[in-house]
Design a protein that fits this description.
The strands form 6 sheets. The protein has a 4-stranded antiparallel beta sheet, with no helix packed on it. The chain is globular, with a radius of gyration of 19 Å. The protein contains no helices and 24 strands. The protein is mostly beta strands and about 375 residues long. A hairpin with an 8-residue loop joins strand 8 and strand 9.
Length: about 375
Amino acid sequence: MLRRLALGFASVVTAAVTLSACGGSGGSSSTPSTSVPTFAPQSLYASNVNQNGISIYPVGTASGGAPQYDIGGSNTTLAGPQYLTFDSQGNLYVSNWSATASSGAILEFKATAYGNVLPFGTLPLTGQVRARGIYDYQQTFTGQTTPTDVLVAALYDPTQSAGFQSEIRFYAAQTLLGYQTLGGPATGLNVPSGIAVDAKQNIYVTNLLGHSVEVFSVPTPSPTPSPTATPSPTPSPTATPAGATPSPTPTAAPTATPINIAPVAALSGATTGIGSPTGIALDASGNMYVSDPASTICGGTGTCPAILIFPAGSNGAVKPSAIAGSNTKLISPSDVKIDNAGNIYVADSTSTGAGVIYVFAKGATGNVAPTTTYTSPGSVIGIALSP
């Protein structure tokens, strides 16, 4: 069975990232700023997979603009960054998969970190285990009076036997210690990719090779996971000098026996238009947004890139609305996020292969043009909006 886990399919250039930051200690600008930047809530972060960095677009970045800051450099240990999420404290989590080194990890960076920083925490993933989609949510466990940040990750190990290659793993976020796993033939998982969680703590998973979206209701774990790191690291939010000691790697916990349960709902079938679903996001009303570079929603015998939009509570062969068509500029969307105003952010590529993030207006459907475009110095896989 799957044990330590991680996923990602982007090809990785292993050379150290060349930062495009325009400020911050550790950046590569010729005129770095001496002040520590603050990033307002809803600042956009994007994984720069072939340059091993995280691009940061603070609120107010103009359409057509490049990132103003980056997390990147040898101290960060970023290697093929894939998908991103934030916890309630603003700490950033990044899934990594280096195809060249055949190694994966989940990295945690302190809130407002930028430049060539050390990770706040590191969860190494052994063997061929690959982490792709990750998501943070809060849960109040039995015996607790305050919620704990939970990190949930989509994981894949091609070396395992059929039916046991795909898992969903749960971690106490700040400690990065695993406490629960979903996996096995009953789950129907076949290369899970994106993850989202609704207000009732149902887990939504895009099933890349299963051509579906699976929804799981997860049992409460016992014993209650611990949210407190021991010892407690004290990293700086700004760049750390080369050679400094990174924060402690969490002590390995016993691997949880995977819970082999069926999903409580699943979107699948030709009517759904789902072809190769990558990322997923939920808006404030629970509507589902699925990025799909090979959707069948456009009709005919071929496929088309699309953002598929399903009403809250959808189950079965439901026909969605969609953002699709030549005006959208979509080519190969890999992730989707919704901001607090309902705007739709999509990670994609241009016709030349450059990374790009498109923003569509709240409620957008059909063959519509994006309202805003952000450029990237490298290929983009995952995106996230800071809390």
